[in-house]
Amino acid sequence: MDKILLLWEGSGLYNLSLPQFVMIAICLLLLYLAIVKKFEPLLLLPIGFGGLLANIPEAGLALSAFEQSLAAFDPAVMQSYADKLGVVLDGGSKAANQDILLPAIKSLSDITVMQELKGMAAAAGYTDGMLNTFYQITIASGAAPLIIFMGVGAMTDFGPLLANPRTLFLGAAAQFGIFATVLGAVGLSSLGIVDFNINQAAAIGIIGGADGPTAIYVASMLAPELLGAIAVAAYSYMALVPLIQPPIMRALTTKAERAIVMSQLRPVTKREKIIFPIAVLVLVALFLPSAAPLLGMFCLGNLMRESGVVDRLSDTAQNALINITTIFLGLAVGSKLVAHLFLTVETLGILALGIIAFGIGTAAGVLMAKLMNKMSKMPINPLIGSAGVSAVPMAARVSNKVGLEANSQNFLLMHAMGPNVAGVIGSAVAAGVMIMYLK
Amino acid sequence: MQTAEPTTNLMMEGFNLMLMGMGFVFAFLTLLVIATTLMSKIILRFSKPEPQVVPNNKGAARLVKGQNSDIIAAISAAIHLHRQRK
Description:
The complex is a heterodimer of chains A (439) and B (86). Chain A has 439 residues and is mainly alpha-helical. Chain A has helices at 2-9, 12-15, 18-35, 41-54, 65-72, 75-85, 94-106, 111-123, 130-140, 143-155, 159-163, 168-173, 176-190, 198-205, 212-222, 227-239, 241-252, 255-258, 270-287, 292-307, 311-318, 320-334, 339-342, 345-375, 394-406, 413-438. The radius of gyration of chain A is 24 Å and the shape is elongated. Chain A starts with a helix and ends with a helix. Chain B has helices at 4-47, 50-85. Chain B starts with a helix and ends with a helix. The A-B interface holds A 161-162, 165-166, 168-169, 171-172, 175-176, 178-180, 182-183, 185-187, 189-190, 192, 197-198, 201-202, 267-269, 271-272, 275-276, 279-280, 283, 287-288, 422, 425-426, 429-430, 433-434, 437-438 and B 3, 7-8, 10-11, 13-15, 17-18, 20-22, 24-26, 28-33, 35-37, 39-40, 43-44, 47, 52.
């Protein structure tokens, strides 16, 4: 009978807490969005599944060795922790001892003592959970977003941008969404609704860059505790670009403006395409070294593509490597979908601010394009401005679609690709500025 | 009202970040526009317009020729196989 009771107490059902149950429901919703609604399935599917794994009670897949030992709360191990910290475990029950020990560990600021505690956990036979290991390797190291960025570089054609370099301004204007959201986030904190510090506000703002890897990279550097919510918001809103953008674009333009036909792009030579990534890198090296990891990998991928001499590497970067990385990146983001990090008022704030960031970015891009149309002799259709929020190539397709509604003979896709890839550069630069300013 | 000071500080910091961020993004991309335009001009000058226009026709003709020879190769291979089977 005792054995059966033990088995029951070790089961998932017995240990399932309400927050875990809610998180499992949320992860199933993410899987539903990925599979049925086709919302960025490449990422939301592994993220949702990783979240499911992370919330399995007692399995502790998302926990580090030290956290595992605390969750197990083995009396002998806990006594050794207490001795190290100099607290006395005199509580009669397990719960009373937890009340003594956990706050003492939480308030511990000495890194060397913390390291020793972690060493003791490892010595007691606890190991890092699988998802925790993936997180350490892919995100905490910063590697996975950078590898994905290299793949994105290898997929990007800078031709339309080189044919009309001024579209870079549109990519810059759309980054206003990022910084306006930072202001919104600190505003919400000063109103006392939520509690974000400036680093967290910056990490939330980067959702407005509409660039998944950049958002994950910045969040992992500035606010790893919010990473789950930020990644989920970034990828779900990217999938919603075709719904979020058109109403804003229509509201800010007249029908005549939307029907503007742009002159055809000049052909771009191969030599220009080869030199461009190198030129970008030189500028980054000279003016913004903190953006060098992101833009460096991006330029490397692009150079592999355009040079034409390493087709095998370029092919690997944009297919096999990016796919492998995506699997582990998704699972690692999923490991942050645990109840105590995700089920907070902050998450609601992040979701709300994220969509505002998208909206402001879109509006700023469109307004900038209107301004440029007024200033320059060459006609510029304001609709291509909205493509300045990266989200390649979805945002460019949206510009094309809205343009066709106004003038069925007007194909804006190639014109919108210019601001679209400019947006990728712009959000990487914005990320670099934030990292430089806050770190 | 005790929290008034830290929150205004936070707002100030957010505002600074916005000014600096947008300023830097625009400055950097402006530089990139200038650099790109210059680069394109230099390259186009040195590679001369001649190979710009002519290869278009030649390239197209070559492509058709290449396709033809591919097709011819495929047909003759098929005939060869066919005969061998007999």
